[in-house]
Design brief:
The chain is mostly helical. It has helices spanning 2-22, 28-40, 44-56, 60-72, 80-91, 96-113, 120-138, 143-155, 163-174, 179-191, 199-210, 215-227, 235-246, 251-263, 271-282, 287-299.
């Protein structure tokens, strides 16, 4: 019996010892997920120390999030230099989100420098760096990197303007459901930029973006229904999309909605509502709305 108790005690000690030694094992991935949980809940004060500790250890996803917090002033004083520092640390480890953020920082700096006559040379250097990092991000399939690379080609920023390359990258981002890319791809099809003009495809991509609340896509979709471009002409649907966009403050949609009320297209004619929407657009500097408002007020 004594041997039984002695052996049992030894086994008990081993088991207890196992829990003490092996019950908790530090894992950067686990700690990052904790931080990410707080970050998504906008509890930045709790996310910050977790990301800071991981960033000190060189954990790239935490470095990227720390950069974003400094960029936006979330839980820390806004500090663009510190944001850039952490983005670069993460980008150098191949983090696609950080590569995109770093590339975009260079792009914005280049665009700013390009506004000044004596800044043209430095702007080119920044554009080259932007292109390098955005390509790295896009080649990993990160949708924002793909979109911004597409916009560089579409606008000829630091590269020869190339609508075909722009469409290539915009399409890759749009196929991942990234709304700004969906809108710009719709615009490319509507205007025949880098692709044959195709109103049906333009409508398809505009609608995808409009359903995500992109005001410019809503406005353009309204125009397509009002004019019957790629769709049967339908004033009711045009008004629906103009209203959605106008309620977000899009001046073009406000003017177009005023026009629909002024002419009673798909809606009872109502000059007071027409004036209301023309004024809203005119206050934003919309020239067509100013002209429409002047005409309406002079006639009525």
């Amino acid at each position: 019996m004594k041997k039984y108790y002695i052996i049992g005690a030894v086994i008990l000690l081993v088991v207890i010892g196992g829990f003490i030694v092996y019950g908790y094992e530090y894992s950067p991935k686990v700690e990052y997920q904790k931080g990410l949980h707080y970050y998504k809940e906008k509890n930045y004060q709790k996310a910050l120390p977790l990301f800071e500790e991981l960033a000190k250890q060189g954990y790239a996803p935490a470095e990227e999030k720390l950069g974003r917090m400094y960029l936006n002033g979330w839980g820390v004083p806004q500090h663009s230099s510190k944001a850039f520092y952490w983005f670069k640390k993460a980008a150098n480890q191949g983090n696609a989100k950080a590569e995109c953020a770093l590339g975009y920082s260079y792009l914005l700096t280049g665009m700013l420098d390009n506004m000044f006559p004596n800044g043209k040379a430095t702007a080119i250097k920044y554009y080259q760096k932007a292109l390098y990092w955005l390509k790295k991000s896009a080649e990993q399939g990160y949708e924002k990197g793909e979109f911004r690379l597409g916009m560089m080609y579409g606008n000829g920023l630091g590269v020869p303007q190339d609508y075909s390359k722009a469409v290539y990258w915009l399409k890759k981002a749009a196929e991942q459901g990234y709304a700004p890319a969906e809108y710009n791809l719709g615009r490319a099809y509507a205007k025949g930029l880098g692709v044959p003009q195709d109103y049906s495809k333009a409508k398809y991509w505009y609608k995808k973006a409009a359903e995500k609340g992109v005001a410019t896509a809503e406005a353009n979709l309204g125009v397509m229904y009002a004019k019957g471009l790629g769709v049967p002409q339908d004033y009711t649907k045009a008004i629906y999309w103009f209203k959605k966009s106008a309620e977000q403050g899009n001046a073009t949609a406000e003017n177009n909605l005023g026009y629909m009320y002024a002419n009673g297209l798909g809606i009872p004619q109502d000059y007071s509502k027409a004036v209301y929407w023309f004024k809203k657009a005119a206050e934003q500097g919309d020239a067509a709305a100013k002209a429409n408002l002047e005409y309406l007020e002079s006639e009525h």
